[in-house]
Specification:
heterodimer; A: about 300 residues; TIM Barrel; B: about 260 residues; alpha/beta; Dihydroorotate dehydrogenase B (pyrk subunit), domain 3; seven-stranded mixed beta sheet; 7 helices; about 20% helix; globular
Chain lengths: ~300, ~260
């Protein structure tokens, strides 16, 4: 039996597979399809303090082996989350990470302070990298200074561990990761979606009402893997790999490149059982190769 | 809802770009309600990546039917499936037509435009089983867009057809035909699926008539199970108006729940 558990330092996961924010709803949507307890954990959909309306449709377009979305972080807000969602998640034995959003630094802090009073949350993931909220994908994760300032304030406000989710839409991902680490982040997750667009040749209009959106799915996996490798070799905090993971071997590529855990995103849309299947595939791989602990695989890439 | 990863295709019928496929999927067939839909992964390959949402056209025994027009790579691949090949089907999903109250002897009119006829066959069967007097209004651009007209006749549903170009039935929009037919005696309820402009025209007419109407809305969908928030429409819900996921709260909505483009704010 391969031991799939991984220690992120601030939290121990029963296996390295988390479901990614924005692709797993608030968890309950997937209960008919998979046993949430089989996952290392899941990251709840991004939360602003107040309910948020999101972008007008069309919000989605499928491209070659990928999906561009411009949902715009529609969500229920912290109060409804705490009252209606959190109680229903108490019975599950899996790590709940809450993705935290804000229109400015103040709002991130307000969300964290509100949720800090509520039980059942393992960590926060700072969403500083959603490309669909401001014009042209502008977000804190595009600047090391902005990232540093925000992470620092969030860390100061929070009594729980903080993971910082980075954007791939930067020139130097390592610079941003180092800024987050210096500001005290407990972990780094990457990548958020790749800023993208699609055009309808008949109408000559963008296929998304928001014009731009974020590309995810198998199309972005090689970019994600490269960035995870670059960051994991430079920071000391644990790295969580995200980007186009559809199978157990996809997930293992990220672990070998240096991620201590992974998040499964778009695959959840294609197959609601995907995250649990990926755990099973990872276990089967480990057993067939006589790997004692999955942690022994992490960062073993031979260059 | 059930995931049947290997539902075998038992029959495929074709009329130009229109296809009617029958899959054996006992669990899904058992639970299916008119107006609900399926999410079908047309190929195990990563392209096309997402499942395709298709409304349930019919059910017979252990089988479910889907009716669609080829509109892109996903439906194109699906259309090429041969009997014996399988598809990965998730369903039944969403909330279908309400079918509340005693429908015995009630005049229930189903109005479909083009591929929007898809969910109305299953609905018509159910309405008839509930004792309603069912009429089907079936509109298309041209006679080629009315491939199911013979089937409806065989199944004993009076189908009143219209074509925009006059190649079959009433010459004009299906909404004009509906207005004409309703002049003598109005229906008790309307059930609608089709292009946006056609549905809005029926909504207006039903308001004038004072007849309740339900509409099946269509959207691209990422997941079909309420997780991606990609398939929203403007809907009035619990006193306020917002972007509502049609996969979860729909795809069928009552007329007055829908915010129509022509509504004055």
């Amino acid at each position: 039996m391969t031991d799939l558990s991984v220690d992120l330092g601030f939290v121990k996961l029963k296996n390295p597979v988390l479901a990614a924010s924005g692709t797993f709803g608030y968890g309950r949507e997937f209960a008919p399809f998979l046993d949430l307890d089989k996952l290392g954990g899941f990251v709840a959909k991004g939360l602003y303090y107040d309910p948020r309306e999101g972008n007008p449709p069309p919000r989605l377009v499928e491209t070659a082996s990928g999906l561009i979305n411009a949902i715009g972080l529609q969500g229920v807000g912290v109060e409804a989350f705490a009252e209606k969602v959190l109680p229903g998640l108490r019975d599950f034995d899996t790590a709940l990470i809450v993705n935290v959003c804000g229109a400015g630094e103040e709002e991130y802090v307000r969300v964290i302070e509100y949720l800090d009073e509520k039980p059942g949350i393992a960590a926060y993931e700072l969403n500083i990298s959603c490309p669909n909220v401001k014009k042209e994908g502008l977000c804190p994760a595009l600047s090391p200074e902005w990232t540093h300032s925000l992470v620092r304030r969030a860390k100061k406000a929070s009594r729980r561990p903080v993971i910082t989710k980075l954007s791939p839409n930067v020139t130097d991902i390592v610079e941003i990761a180092l800024a987050a680490e210096e500001a005290g982040t407990d972990g780094i997750s990457l990548i958020n979606t790749v800023l993208a667009m699609a055009v309808d040749v008949e109408t000559r209009r963008p296929k998304l009402a928001n014009v731009f959106g974020g590309l995810s799915g198998p199309a972005v996996k090689p970019i994600a893997l490269r960035m995870v490798y670059q960051v994991a070799t430079r920071v000391k905090v644990p790295v969580i790999g995200i980007g186009g993971i559809m199978s157990g071997t996809d997930a293992l590529e990220f672990l070998i490149a240096g991620a201590r855990a992974v998040q499964v995103g778009t695959a959840n849309f294609v197959d609601p059982e995907a995250a649990a299947r990926i755990v099973a595939e990872m276990r089967a791989f480990g057993e067939s190769r006589r790997i004692e602990k999955i942690e022994d695989v992490i960062g073993t890439i031979r260059i | 809802m059930i995931k049947n990863a290997r539902a075998p295709l038992v029959q495929s019928e074709r009329w130009n770009d229109y296809f009617l496929l029958t899959f054996e999927a006992p669990g899904i067939a058992r639970e299916a309600r008119p107006g609900q839909f399926l999410m079908i992964k047309v190929s195990p390959e990563p392209y096309p990546l997402l499942r395709r949402p298709l409304s349930i056209h019919g059910r017979s025994g252990d089988a479910v039917e889907v009716f669609f027009k080829v509109a892109g790579s996903g439906t194109e691949i699906l259309s090429r499936k041969k009997p014996g090949e399988t598809a990965d089907i998730l369903g039944p999903l969403g909330r279908g037509y309400r079918l509340d109250g005693d429908l015995r002897g009630k005049k229930a009119w189903c109005v479909g435009g083009g591929r929007g006829i898809a969910p109305l066959n299953f609905l018509a069967e159910e309405l008839r089983a509930l004792g309603a007097e069912v009429r089907i209004f079936y509109g298309g651009r041209s006679v080629e867009d009315l491939p199911l007209r013979d089937k409806f006749e065989k199944r004993g549903f009076p189908a009143v057809c219209s074509t925009d170009d006059g190649t079959f039935g009433f010459h004009g929009f299906v909404t004009d035909l509906l207005e004409k037919e309703g002049g003598a005696a109005k229906p008790d309820s309307l059930y609608v699926c089709g292009p946006d402009a056609m549905m809005e025209a029926v909504a207006k007419l039903s308001r004038v008539w004072g007849v309740p109407a339900e509409f099946s809305l269509e959207s691209l969908m990422g997941c079909g199970i309420g997780a991606c928030w990609g398939c929203v429409k403007r809907i009035k819900k619990e006193g306020s108006e917002g972007w509502v996921k049609i996969c979860e709260d729909g795809p069928v909505f009552a007329r007055d729940e829908i915010v129509w483009p022509g509504d004055v704010p």
